UniProtKB/TrEMBL annotation:
<dbReference type="Pfam" id="PF00497">
    <property type="entry name" value="SBP_bac_3"/>
</dbReference>
<protein>
    <submittedName>
        <fullName>Polar amino acid transport system substrate-binding protein</fullName>
    </submittedName>
</protein>
<dbReference type="InterPro" id="IPR001638">
    <property type="entry name" value="Solute-binding_3/MltF_N"/>
</dbReference>
<keyword id="KW-0732">Signal</keyword>
<feature type="domain" description="Solute-binding protein family 3/N-terminal">
    <location>
        <begin position="16"/>
        <end position="235"/>
    </location>
</feature>
Amino acid sequence: MDLSLSQKQALVPTGCLRAALNHGNFVLVSRNEQHQPMGISVDLARAFAKAAGLDLDFVEYDRAADVSASADRGEWDICFLAVDPKRAETLDFTQPYIRIDGRYLAGPHCDLADAGALVAAGAKVGSVEGSAYTLTLARQEGAEHLVLFPTLAESLAALDAGKVAAIAGIGEAMAHEAAKRPGSRVLSPPFMEIRQAMAMPQGRPEAARILKDWLAGAARSGLTGDILERHGVARSCALLPD
């Protein structure tokens, strides 16, 4: 990109690109042995900063809800979140660049056959408050049986204690947790397709246009697919712009 000074100022009012990271989704963000952030979101932020000729700094949060709740506080310039109508009230989203399944992890004490049976039975399902899958499930049948927890660790603890029949989460994360819990299993079919995008706070139309155009080009060029593969996510999960 060949950006003018005014365009760079629109993107980075503080002089440095501040990228919010959500550590609640380890598919997209994790930490290396030096406790530095790494992952798909990190690589996308670095690629965008390099293309725009901007310095980069990371602003780290434990949960997606913490990122979206801070949208009007001027703490960051870009973020990486699942698209949701409620979040779009304060965030200007790009088109999604990756799709991830939302699935239920059933505990060993739950003998229900699939996701449909879980909902039909009115079983208690744990979910992390403010997450994309919680926002979606709250609009679906069975919402009254959701039990919300501040963190994934707390929802897993409730599952292990038999306080909920299952928990909701990102498919790959649920499979990872199932492997550590004999008798537990990930239920089919997925209850949603989570579409992850980049975003920035509402009210910055010029900056939002630059971000949207760059990400669309990154998708078409294969850059996003390359980044996904680098972090063990199938290239087929990458989404091309309409």
